[in-house]
Amino acid sequence: MQVLRYGDSGLAVSYLQLALARAGPAPIEPDGIFGRRTLTVVETFQSRNGLTPDGVVGKLTWTALYPYLTGYTVHVLRAGDTYFALARRFNTTVQAITTANPTLVPTNLPVGANLIVPLGFDVVTDRVPYSYALTQLIAEGLQKRYPFIGKRPIGASVMGKELFCLILGAGESQVSFNASHHANEWITTPLTLRFLEEYAKAFAQGGRIFDIDARTLFARTILFLIPLVNPDGVDLVTGALPQEDSYYKQAEALAGFYPAIPFPNGWKANMRGVDLNLQYPAGWDEARDFKFAQGFVRPGPRDFVGLGPLTEPESQALYRFTLSRRFRLILAYHTQGEVIFWKYRDYEPPRSYEIALAFADASGYAVEETPFGSGNAGYKDWFIQTYNLPGYTIEAGLGESPLPLSDLPKMYEDNIGIMALALRMA
């Protein structure tokens, strides 16, 4: 993280404020502005943590704040430590500590060993915009708190950011969710990550998710979540990519050819100006002809199909990863419209409409066929065409993308049933 001081503003300041709010030296709301209130809270935090209270957030202060972004800390065990005492000290629970340390015996704790201590808040947040860096921190925190969550790389973006999936489950039926194909639809990343966290918590506690037994789901299925298909584009939209960066300037130049599309909020594409959900080999020629007729003939913020299918590293990565697995069902998360798109052309995979109706009943969303102008070259289209298995594009929320974070709680309540039922019905 960059060095921050009084007068700064931006996404990094929002993350600072989120960490301070979780650390609890004093109430503070993330607004991205390092003003007088933030300065006072920083100085208080520094004093309480043995740091020079100069109000400058450098390496040492960020290191002290790190647990409040990942949701865990590491405690070196001492003689006399107990889970009960540590839970009280760190405002967490004995069960959370036990879950995070499956190889340790609580009645025989080895002095000098490292103990993962989950802190007393959920890792996935709805208080700050997302970025590649925050998504990586959340992934780290979820894996530490729930060590049965796996992670594996599947490729890299144009800018070299790692594309990865998070894995939860031990069954034979494989299911995949993906989010943020489109940059200004980044709210789908915390939407799907929150489900993963709630599912992992329910499994650890022997509980239920959407009134479905989590341990039964875990035993029968494996969930592969790709939470951030387009990290470069998301960083552009949310402000994580500095305006002086050459990639930002390149995107700004491409956007100049489409002045009617707001920049950067209207940006959906990857950093080469290619729409990643128009990159898959399912009616790509038809998609090209339709989008070219609309005037999207060169790289830009949205709707440019590229020079051919699968020219972009992000779409290539998801394509190859899908070919390497045996997914029984996929969900591709987008915004907005509160609509479930369930078929591609005349393909109607067995049970796909039945499952779509169950999703609709759980969410209140409408079940519709994809409009002609959006009905080719998408990931869901290619999956259905290739495997003749259920695949769905979920258009979450209502409004103009990027949707505000204040919409996320309702979006989650609407979509928790879709995601839980996807696992049960696959």
State the main characteristics.
single chain; 426 residues; alpha/beta; eight-stranded mixed β-sheet; two-stranded antiparallel sheet; 16 helices; globular
Q: What does the model show?
A:
Helix 8 (188-205) crosses helix 16 (408-425). 40% of the residues lie in helices and 15% in strands. The protein has 426 residues and is of the alpha/beta class. The chain has helices at 11-23, 36-48, 59-65, 67-70, 83-89, 94-100, 132-145, 188-205, 214-220, 231-238, 246-255, 284-293, 313-324, 352-363, 379-387, 408-425, and strands at 72-76, 114-118, 150-156, 162-169, 173-179, 208-209, 212-213, 221-226, 327-335, 339-341, 366-368, 391-396.
Summarize the structure.
By secondary structure, the chain is an alpha/beta fold. 40% of the residues lie in helices and 15% in strands. It has 16 helices and 12 strands.
Percent of residues in helices: 25-40%
Please give the radius of gyration in angstroms. 22 Å
Number of E-type strands: 12
Round the mean pLDDT to the nearest integer and report it.
Answer: 97
Strand order of the largest sheet: 3-4-8-5-9-12-10-11
| Percent in strands | 5-15%
Question: What class, by secondary structure content?
Answer: alpha/beta
Low-confidence stretches: none
Shape: globular
